[in-house]
Amino acid sequence: MKKIISILLFACAGALAACDFLDVVPEGQATQEDIFKTSKEARKYLNTLYTYAPNIAAYRYMPDFCAGDDIITATNGQTRYFPYKSMLYNEENASQTYYGLWDATTSSPSGRTNYDMYKGIRYCYIMIDNIDAVPGISPSVADEFKGEAYFLIAYYHWVLLTHYGPVILVRGQLDMGLPEEQVYVARSPFDECVTFIAETYDRAADLLHGYPTRPDADLGRATSVAAKAMKARLLLYAASPLCNGNTEFYARFRNNDGTPLMSQTYNPEKWKWALDACQEAITLAEDNGHRLYESPNATAAATAAERGEINYHDCFVEPLWNTTEYLWAMGDQTGIGHLQRYGGARLKLPYSTDGFCINIVPTFECVEMYYTHNGLPWDRDPETMHIDPYAYNAEKETVNLHVYKEPRFYASVGYDRGKYAINGEEFILKCRAGEMQGSVLDASKEYQSCTGYILKKWIHRQSAFNYDTKSWTYRKYAYPYIRLAELYLSYAEADFEYNGSLSDASLNYLNLVRRRSGLPDFKDSWALAGGIPTGDELRKVLHRERSIELLMEGMRYHDLRRWKEAGEAMSRRPKAWNLDGRTAADFYRVSTMKESGVRTFESPKTYWMAIPLSEININYNLVQNPGY
User: Fold this and answer.
1) Does residue 457 belong to any structural domain of this protein?
2) At what angle do helices 224-239 and 139-164 cross, to 10 degrees?
3) How many C-beta neighbours within 10 Å does residue 83 have?
4) Would residue 202 count as lying in a domain?
5) How many domains does the chain have?
6) Which of 13, 83, 219, 516 is deepest in the core (most CB within 10 A)?
7) pLDDT digits 0-9 by tens, 245-275
C-alpha cells in the first residue's frame, strides 16, 4: 500500500520529507486508499487543504497586518513575539526568517506558526489526481473538490509570489524517480508565474461554476466568484510599478542560466488585463447577489454621515459572516479573538494584564490619511485647508484633526475624547497620561497605546471581559480575504492607469464605495477643490481612496510595495502624541513614536523576503532575491 509520505516531495527543492499525519482516519498512518475510500473521507481531506492558508488576522503569524504603516503594536515586545517587526527593522535574512512560508524547517527565533505553501500545493494535487476514483462520488462533486484544490494551488502560489517574488511553479505531483535536473528546478520568471496562477484561478472558476456562493454550512470554501476576484487582484499586482518594467530594482535579477526573472519592458496592456479581470469579477459577483454591506442598524440614523459610520463599522463585526460583501473570507477565531483582546480599550485601573490590553493600535499616519467629512484631503478641502489640524478645539475637548473627519474614521479609530463602545456600553475615551486609556507612566508596561489611538474597526460593542469570572466573550465574525469594495477600487485604478482618466464606470464604482460610508460622490467632493485632479495627482488620490477603504485589513502592506512607495513610507519615523502629557496642552504635541528597534527599509531588499539559505544549499538552481 503506497503511503502518502512516500509520494510527497518537500517544498520547492523536492527533498524528501515525512509529512504530518492528516487526521483523516481514526488510527494508524493515512494512506491514499484510506483517504479516498469514501466521499466522506475525501471531504475531510479537502478540509485539511485549507489549513495551509495563512491566518492574515493573526498579527503574529504573517507580516501583512502590522508591517504596513496603518496599524502597529505597542512599543515593548521583541521581534520574536511580534515577527512583523523583522520587516520594519531589517532583521530578515537568508539564514533566519520569522516566517515559514517557503521552507517550514528554516530555524526561527519566533516560535512561529508555519504555513508551508509548497506542502499545501502538493496535497492539493493529490486531491486532483485521486478524487475521480472515489467509490460512488458523483462527477459534479468530484469537479467541485478539484475546483477548490485548483483555487488553493493558485492562492498558495500567490502568497509565495507576493512575499518572495518569482517562485518555483508546481504544475503537478513529482515522480520520485525523476532525474535530479527535473527536481532541482529554477525559479520561473515573474510573468510566467502570473500566467500560471491566473490560468489556475480560471480553471478553478470553471469547475466551480455551479458554486458562485456557498450555503451557511460551507462558508469559507472557494467559489467561482472568489477565483475571479483573486485573479483580478493578481493581475493588478502584476501591472503595478514594482513588477511592470522595474529597471531600477531588477535589471540584473536573473537565474543562473541568464534568464531574466523580471521583465524590463513596461507593458501598459497589463493594466488592461487587470481592468478586464476586475470587470469580469464584479459582474459575476453582482449577478450572484453580492453588494456593499449596509447595516440594518443604520436605517434609523438621522444623517448620511451617521448611516455611513454604522454601515462601515458593522460591515466587519456585525454579521457572523458577511456574505453580502465578502467574496472570500476565513473564520479562524484565533486572530479575531486576539484583535479584540489586544485591540480593545482598557476598562480598569490600576494597570493589569487582565481584560482588554491595549496593544494593536492605529498609527498616527493612518489617522492623517482619512478624508474630511467632505471627502477631501485636509489641505484640499476649502473648509479645513486654513485650519490647523493639530490645534486644540476647546469646544470638542480634542484636536481639530478629530473634528472634521469622514465617517470611516469614526467607525475605525478610537481617539482621546471620542466615543467608544465595548463590554456592552458606550463611553468617552480618555487617552491622556494617567487616564483610563492613557499612558500609565511606566515604560516597562507593555499594554499601552504607542500612538495615542485605540483600535475600533474590529471591536464590537458586545466584545466583553468579565472581571469577576476572568472569562471572555469574543464577538465571532469572519475576516475578509477579499471583498467587493476592493474590486471597485481596483477597477478604478486600472482604468486610470490604462486610459489616463476615469470612465463613468470607474466614477460609479468609486461612488458606490463612498455613498455606503456617507461621503459625497467623487465628482461632487472634488468640485469643492476646483475639479477632479489629473495625472500624477489623480494617481495619488486613487491610491488614497483605496488605502482609506482598506485600512487595517492587511492590504496597505502589499499596496505600498506594488506601488513602489514602501521605501519612502516605511523609512519615516512614525509619529505619536506626547503620551506622557497629562493635560491637553501637553498631550497634543506631535512627537516621534518610540519603537523597539531602528526602522530600516532597504530597497530593493525589503520589498520581498529572502529565499531561505537552506533551500539554496539544496537546490543549486535557486538564486537569491536582490539585496540579500
Assistant:
1) no
2) 20
3) 27
4) yes
5) 1
6) 83
7) 999 999 999 999 999 999 999 999 999 999 9
Question: What is the distance in angstroms between the CA of the first residue and the CA of the last residue of the chain?
Answer: 45
3-state secondary structure of 567: helix
Confidence of residue 109 (pLDDT cuts 50, 70, 90): low
Identify the CA nearest to 612 among candidates 259, 49, 95: 95
Nearest C-alpha neighbor of 236 from the set 265, 276, 263: 276
CA–CA distance, 119 with 116 (Å, rounded to integer): 5
Residue 133 DSSP label: G
pLDDT the model gives residue 30:
63
Q: What is the DSSP letter of 182?
A: H
- Rounded CA separation 354/333 (Å): 20
Question: What pLDDT sits at residue 552?
Answer: 98
Q: Mean of the pLDDT values across residues 355-362?
A: 97
Give 594's pLDDT tier (boundaries 50, 70, 90): very high
Q: What is the 3-state secondary structure (H, E, C) of 533-547?
A: CCHHHHHHHHHHHHH
Residue 145 C-beta-side C-alpha neighbours within 13 Å: 30
- Measure Cα distances from 197 to 50, 154, 484 in Å: 17, 5, 21
Alpha-carbon distance of 30 to 264, in angstroms, equals 47
CA 495/CA 505 separation, integer angstroms:
9
Specify the amino acid at residue 246. Answer: N
DSSP E strands in 118-232: the ranges are none
C-alpha 336 chain-centroid distance: 13
Q: Measuring CA to CA, which residue among 123, 145, 117, 158 is closest to residue 38?
A: 145
Ramachandran region, residue 564 (left: φ > 0; alpha: ψ -120 to 50; beta: rest): left
Residue 95 placed within a domain: yes
Three-class SS state of 15: strand
Side chain identity, residue 467: Y
User: For the chain, what percentages of helix, strand and coil (3-state, to nearest 5) are there?
Assistant: 40, 10, 50
Cell output for 465: 471581559
* CB contact burial 85-121 (16+ within 10 A = b; e otherwise): bbbbbbbbebebbbbbbbbbebebebebbbbbbbbbb
Domain that holds residue 215: 4-272+610-618
Instruction: Please tell me the distance from the alpha carbon of residue 552 to that of residue 365, in angstroms, as a whole number.
Output: 12
Is 211 or 10 the better-scoring residue by pLDDT? 211
pLDDT digits (tens, 9 = 90+) for 450-472: 999 999 999 999 999 999 999 99
324, part of any domain: no
Burial label for 247, CB within 10 Å (0-12, 13-18, 19+), is exposed
Tell me the backbone φ, ψ of residue 261, rounded to 5 degrees.
-90, -20
Q: How confident is the model at residue 96 (pLDDT cuts 50, 70, 90)?
A: confident
- Contacts for 373-380: CB closer than 8 Å, 24+ residues apart: 373/305, 373/404, 373/405, 373/406, 373/407, 373/519, 374/520, 374/525, 374/528, 375/406, 375/514, 375/519, 375/520, 375/522, 375/524, 375/525, 376/525, 376/526, 376/528, 376/529, 377/544, 378/404, 380/529
Residue that the C-alpha cell 492558508 belongs to: 53
Backbone angles phi, psi at 421, to 5 degrees: -130, 130
d(CA 28, CA 42): 17
Pull the grid cell for residue 20: 504530518
Predicted confidence at residue 28, as pLDDT, reads: 46
For residue 55, what is the domain's CATH number? 1.25.40.390
Contact 28, 5 (CB under 8 A): no
